[in-house]
Amino acid sequence: MRFVKLVSGLGLAALSCGSALAACPAANEYSFLFNSQPAATLDYATSYTYTATNALAQSLNFSVGFFTNGLTSTVIAGNQMPAISTLINNDAVSRFLIVGGIFAGRTPDVAVNTRVVVTTFTFAVPVRDVTLTTSDVDFTTNQFRDWYMAVGRNGASSYVPTLVTPFSQVNNTGPFTNASSSLTLGPVATPIAVTAAQGVGVGGSANNANTGDIQLSFAQPVTSVEVRYGNYPLQSGETATGQQGIGIRGISFCPMPVVSLAKTSAPVAIIGDNRFNIPGADVDYTITVTNSGGSPVDLDTTSISDPLPADVAFFNGDIDTVTPGTQNFVFTPGTSGLTLGAGNITYFNNASAPITPVAGYDPAVRSVRWVPQGTMAANSTATIRFRTRIN
C-alpha cells in the first residue's frame, strides 16, 4: 500500500506501508453467522446484504450473490435452494446458508461457469483475514462427488486460500486424506485431479457432521470471495447425477489499516521578529502519522519521506531538550508501538543520493526518510518533529 498526501503547502510528504499481515486485534474482527437470520427461502437471482459486527459495536455491510449454470432443479431433500435453514450444518441446530440443486450433468471444470453454483461474498472496501467454513463436502456414488473451489479477488489480483479441515488436512502440501474426513484437498493429480484451491468428496458425511468441513482463509486483502460448487465428472461405475448441497456457516474478517499523513509547521521563536516565517527564522515541522484502521501495519514496513522546501536548510543539531545526547528530531510514539533511532534515518541531497549532514544548518540536505521500527498498532498516532531555518 502507498499513501500520499499534500499538506499545508509545506512540501510533499510521502508515506509507504507494507501489506497488512500483522495480527488483527480480536476486538476489531468482524463476524457474521447465518444463524442470526430467520429461516428463509432465498433466490439465486437476488443479491442479499448482511451486516457483520465486532466487539467494539462497529458494523460493516457485505453482500452475498449467486451465479448458477446447468441446474435442472433447485430442490434438494424437498427444500428449495438457496435457503437459510438447518438442513446442512455441523451442529444440528444452527441455521446455515444452504446452496445446491441437481445439475443436468457432471461439472467439466469447477473453475469455469459450466454446471456450477457460485456464491460470492462482496465487500465495499478491501478486508483481510477472511475466514469462512463450508460444510458437507462429500461423495455418494451415482449421485454426486462434491467439487469445491474458493477464490479471493482484489481488482485484477486473485488469490488461493489456505484450506484446512478439522482433521489436519491442509492444501498446498500435496494430496492428503484423513480417514475421518469425507474429502480430499488439492493439489491432487490421481485418481482425481484438483488444484490447491479445490477440495473433492471421497466419502459420505452426515448433513450435520463436521467430517465434510472446509475452512478457507485469506491473509491477503480481498474485495470478494467466491465459493464455487460443482459435481465432479463421472468415475468408473458411475452413470447418474443426483441432488447435492453444501452449507456455509458465516464469515469473519478484519478491517484494513487506514494510514494517513499530516504535516504542520511552527516558528520556534515565540517573541521577536523570528516568530514569523522570515529569512533567518527557525521553523519546526511536525509530521503526524495516523493508523485509523482496525488492523496494525506490518513489522518494520512504515516509511516516511519528506522533501524539504527549496528555501529552508535542515538543522543537524540537538532539538530534544529532554533526552540526553544530540537528537536532531523528536519522535513521539504515542500508542503506536513504533520506535525510531538515528540509525533509521537517511538524508538525501538534491540528486536523491544519501549523504551525511554536517553539523548545524546544512542546505545540502534536500529530503529525509524515516523508517520507524515495529508494528504500528491499530487506531494509533505517532509524530516526528525536526527543525529547519528559512534562507
The N- to C-terminal Cα distance equals 36 Å
Number of helices: 0
The gyration radius over C-alpha positions equals 28 Å
Instruction: Enumerate the spans where pLDDT stays under 50 for 5 or more consecutive residues.
Output: 1-9
The secondary-structure class comes to mainly beta
Describe the largest sheet.
Answer: 17 strands, antiparallel
Overall number of structural domains: 2
Q: What portion of residues belong to β-strands?
A: over 45%
**Large-scale geometry:** elongated
User: Mean pLDDT, nearest integer?
Assistant: 92
Helix content: under 10%
The overall strand count is 31
Structure description:
With 391 residues, the protein is mainly beta. It has strands spanning 2-6, 12-16, 30-33, 40-41, 48-53, 59-69, 71-73, 75-76, 79-80, 83-85, 96-103, 116-135, 139-140, 144-154, 157-159, 162-164, 183-185, 198-201, 214-218, 222-231, 244-255, 259-267, 282-291, 303-307, 312-316, 329-332, 345-348, 354-355, 360-362, 367-370, 380-390. The strands form four sheets. The protein has a 17-stranded antiparallel beta sheet that branches. Strands 1-2-24-30-27-28 form a six-stranded antiparallel beta sheet, with no helix packed on it. It has two domains: 2-20 and 257-390, Immunoglobulin-like (Sandwich); 27-254, no CATH class.
